[in-house]
């Protein structure tokens, strides 16, 4: 298939067999284009075509439409392709009203679209959570429709997502201070299945919000259990917790450029043993627990060759840890300290103090490092 998808269907990704999909920003732009066109002409284009930032021209089928003398509404069901996107299947609506000449394009948050309540995001407090690229896409398409039909292009666009407030509870929005619903997102208009870009962008926004709130201590956590651990250890507020997942490198590289005084990294022993071994992506498909590396650390902690050999042959990282715990060898602390030192090397002298906490599956702390800061000037 070419760069065009008809009828709102997702296109097939080359080589992977997976379908890509469309962002909420692309759906909102298509709905806005259809609604504004109907407001001026009396007819809804269906399907409605738009042009994405990189030149693709998908078309979207309308799932809802309403036309009155005062406004027009069009709705499009989001198709995220084969990506496990919580907004897949959501109905994105745009309601367009004309405004007096000179008013420009005004965005409003309808039901299911959030409002920004904290500084640190690329939108001012009080603004609807419609990101800059989707806003520009909608402005561009409004201008094109206005030019075709001889209108001024001064409109109010109210965006809403059916059940968006409920869906948003499964996203980072509440933690980032986006309340009342979802964000209208997207920089290219295309959702790439299993892309890490959205997660990494959320990590970056989390750092921005924490800094804007004056937080001096943040924590990168691999999951909910590690979040509970750092809250119990340090009583950190919610906006200081970064859902790092497997993307340790994303946290460290962004904090290097946007420092905070202290960063705690907390996660499962096996995952953080990968960081200790120099891996910045901790996903099991992209890095593995190196039990030979663990054996070398165990020797450093006093393990004899018999124990080191057992560690090297252990079935899992947790099994290696348990062997060392039984023998009084502090493998957990050694992994935490080595992971901290690896994190400091990625920070390249940025003014950030780091400590690492390793936990088991039950959330018990099985290793920790001291807090340390690398000397030297920060570099990018």
Automatic annotation (TrEMBL):
<dbReference type="InterPro" id="IPR002748">
    <property type="entry name" value="CbiD"/>
</dbReference>
<keyword id="KW-0808">Transferase</keyword>
<dbReference type="Pfam" id="PF01888">
    <property type="entry name" value="CbiD"/>
</dbReference>
<comment type="pathway">
    <text>Cofactor biosynthesis; adenosylcobalamin biosynthesis; cob(II)yrinate a,c-diamide from sirohydrochlorin (anaerobic route): step 6/10.</text>
</comment>
<keyword id="KW-0949">S-adenosyl-L-methionine</keyword>
<keyword id="KW-0169">Cobalamin biosynthesis</keyword>
<protein>
    <recommendedName>
        <fullName>Cobalt-precorrin-5B C(1)-methyltransferase</fullName>
        <ecNumber>2.1.1.195</ecNumber>
    </recommendedName>
</protein>
<dbReference type="GO" id="GO:0032259">
    <property type="term" value="P:methylation"/>
</dbReference>
<keyword id="KW-0489">Methyltransferase</keyword>
<dbReference type="InterPro" id="IPR036074">
    <property type="entry name" value="CbiD_sf"/>
</dbReference>
<dbReference type="GO" id="GO:0008168">
    <property type="term" value="F:methyltransferase activity"/>
</dbReference>
<comment type="similarity">
    <text>Belongs to the CbiD family.</text>
</comment>
């Amino acid at each position: 298939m070419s760069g065009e998808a008809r009828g709102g269907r997702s296109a097939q990704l080359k080589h992977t067999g997976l379908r890509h999909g469309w962002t909420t920003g692309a759906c909102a732009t298509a709905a806005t284009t259809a609604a504004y066109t109907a407001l001026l002409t009396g007819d809804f284009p269906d399907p409605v075509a738009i042009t994405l930032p990189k030149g693709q021209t998908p078309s979207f089928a309308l799932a809802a439409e309403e036309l009155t003398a005062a406004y027009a509404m069009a709705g499009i069901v989001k198709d995220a392709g084969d990506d496990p996107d919580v907004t897949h299947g959501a109905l994105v609506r745009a309601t367009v009203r004309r405004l007096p000449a000179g008013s420009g394009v005004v965005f409003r948050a309808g039901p299911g679209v959030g409002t920004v309540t904290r500084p640190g995001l690329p939108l001012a407090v009080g603004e609807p959570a419609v990101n800059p690229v989707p806003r520009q896409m909608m402005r561009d398409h409004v201008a094109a429709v206005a030019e075709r039909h001889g209108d001024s292009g001064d409109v109010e666009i109210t965006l809403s997502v059916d059940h968006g407030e409920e869906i948003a509870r499964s996203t980072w929005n509440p933690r980032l201070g986006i309340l009342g619903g979802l964000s209208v997102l997207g920089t290219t208009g295309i959702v790439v299945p299993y892309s890490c870009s959205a997660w990494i962008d959320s990590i970056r926004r989390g750092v921005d919000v924490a800094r804007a709130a004056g937080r001096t201590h943040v924590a990168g956590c691999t999951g909910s259990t590690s979040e509970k651990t750092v809250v119990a250890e340090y009583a950190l507020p919610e906006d200081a917790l970064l859902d790092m997942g497997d993307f340790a490198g994303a946290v460290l590289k962004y904090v290097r450029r946007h420092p905070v005084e202290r960063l705690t990294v907390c996660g499962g022993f096996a995952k953080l043993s990968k960081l200790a071994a120099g891996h910045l992506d901790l996903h099991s498909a992209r890095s593995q627990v190196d039990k030979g590396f663990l054996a070398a650390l165990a020797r450093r902690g006093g393990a004899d060759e018999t124990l080191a050999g057992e560690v090297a042959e252990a079935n899992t990282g947790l099994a290696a840890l348990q062997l060392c715990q039984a023998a009084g060898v502090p493998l957990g602390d050694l992994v935490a300290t080595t992971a901290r030192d690896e994190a400091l090397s990625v920070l390249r002298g940025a003014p950030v103090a780091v400590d690492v906490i390793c936990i088991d599956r039950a959330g018990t702390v099985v290793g920790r490092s001291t807090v340390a800061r690398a000397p030297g000037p920060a570099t990018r």
